[in-house]
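Consider a concrete sample entry:
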Amino acid sequence: MNVSIVTKLNDSLWSFNSTGLGPDRIDFINHVLMEEKPHMLYLQEIWKYTSEISELQGMFPGYRLTGVSGMDETVSITAGRKYGGLLCLWNDSLCDMIKPFKC
């Protein structure tokens, strides 16, 4: 996967439409985080339920995360694939400045 598909909003804020978070995507995202060291990375289309987002903590060394699903967990998907969702990752050095909250 080519790093050029990641949108660099500025030196410290990046964005990527991940179209899911399978093992290949997680490896690619970790490569970007290790090589480019953005302060924050926004991932769109993570295709995870809200209950699955906490399981991602620890998969991106040196970064914390919070996110929201685009899917309603009470409705089972009977056709098609998972969709939507947003994940925000921030460098551990920003932990004193970032406090996630639920809306």
Summary: Helices lie at 23-36, 50-53. Strands lie at 7-10, 13-17, 40-44, 63-68, 86-91.
